[in-house]
Recover the amino acids of this structure.
DNA sequence: CTACATGCAAATCCTTTGCATCCAC
DNA sequence: GTGGATGCAAAGGATTTGCATGTAG
C-alpha cells in the first residue's frame, strides 16, 4: 500500500505542480485502496471538499495516468476505474453473467509479459487488467453470456 | 473466416428470430473481417440500407454478444469495437504513445487461460483482448505514457 | 395473430472544451 | 508576477429508453 504522501513527494521532486485538488484525489485513491470511478472519487471527496468538480477529477486522473501513478481499466458494465499503481499490480476476473469481480495475482501475467517482450518487442503495461469470462457458479447454473 | 450464412443458420436453429436488420449486421461484420465500432457498422450499412438506425445496431450487437457470436473490446482512444468470434481468436497490442495497433496471435493466451481455469475455476472468454504498452519505436524515442 | 424487433425522438450518462478566475511556485 | 490549474457552463459523443409501429414465426 503506497501512502499518499510518498506519491505527492515523488511528484513534487519531479517538479510537478501540486495543488490541493491533486492531493485530495491521490489521498482518495490511496485511502480507498480500491479502484474507483471518476464519479466515486468525486463523491468520496464531495463530503469534505464540495468544491471539487468532476471536470477537475477527470483532468487530475488523466494527469496521474500520464505520469504512471494510476492505471485505468475498463471493467465493462462496471465502468472505467482508476487505481494507484503500487508495487504489486493485480487484475480482475469479471464474470459476464453475474458481474462478480475477483482479484487476481499478478504472477499469472509474467509469462505473457515475457512473450510479448520477446516476440513483439513490446513493453506491456499490464498493471490492472480486466479479464472477462464465466465464473464456476454461472457455468454450473448453465447460463451463458447474459 | 466464418461466413454470415453459417451464423444466421446457427442462430435460426437455436430458435432465434432473424430479422433483415440482424442479418445485415452479421453480414457487415463478416464481410469487413475487421473489428468495427457501432458507428462503423451503421455507416457501412447506411449505403445500402439507409433505414437502419444506430439504436438498432446497438441492440443487435448486444444481442449477438449475449449469444456468443461477437466479442466486444475497448481499444481505448479507438473506442469500443465488435468482432465476430471465429475459430482463431486474435488480440491487439495498443501503443499508449503512438496509438499503433498490432495484431497478436492467440497462442500467447493459452498459458494464461489454462492457469485461470486451474487456479480460479474461471472460464475466460479471451477472444479479442487489448493489451496496452509501449512499442519499440516509442521506447527508443524515449517517450512515456503520453 | 401475437410477441418481439425496429424506428424515432428524447433522455441519460460520460467525457471534453472554452473561458474567466485563481493559486502554486 | 505568471503559467498553469480549477470552476463553471456548455458542448459533444456514446449509449439507453419509451412508445408507436412493423414484421417474423
Amino acid at each position: 500500500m503506497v501512502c499518499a504522501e510518498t506519491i505527492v513527494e515523488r511528484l513534487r521532486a519531479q517538479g510537478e505542480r501540486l495543488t490541493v485538488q491533486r492531493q485530495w484525489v491521490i489521498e482518495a485513491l490511496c485511502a480507498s485502496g480500491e479502484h474507483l470511478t471518476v464519479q466515486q472519487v468525486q463523491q468520496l471527496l464531495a463530503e469534505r471538499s464540495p468544491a471539487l468538480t468532476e471536470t477537475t477529477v477527470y483532468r487530475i486522473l488523466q494527469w496521474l495516468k500520464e505520469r504512471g501513478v494510476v492505471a485505468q481499466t475498463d471493467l465493462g458494465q462496471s465502468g472505467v476505474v482508476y487505481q494507484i499503481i503500487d508495487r504489486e499490480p493485480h487484475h480482475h476476473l469479471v464474470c459476464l453473467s453475474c458481474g462478480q469481480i475477483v482479484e487476481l495475482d499478478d504472477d499469472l501475467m509474467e509469462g505473457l509479459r515475457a512473450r510479448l517482450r520477446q516476440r513483439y518487442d513490446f513493453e506491456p503495461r499490464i498493471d490492472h487488467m480486466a479479464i472477462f469470462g464465466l465464473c464456476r457458479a454461472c457455468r454450473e447454473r448453465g447460463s451463458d453470456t447474459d
Notes: The mean pLDDT of chain A is 88. The two ends of chain A are 36 Å apart (CA to CA). Strands of chain A lie at 70-74, 80-84, 91-95, 101-104, 123-124, 130-134.
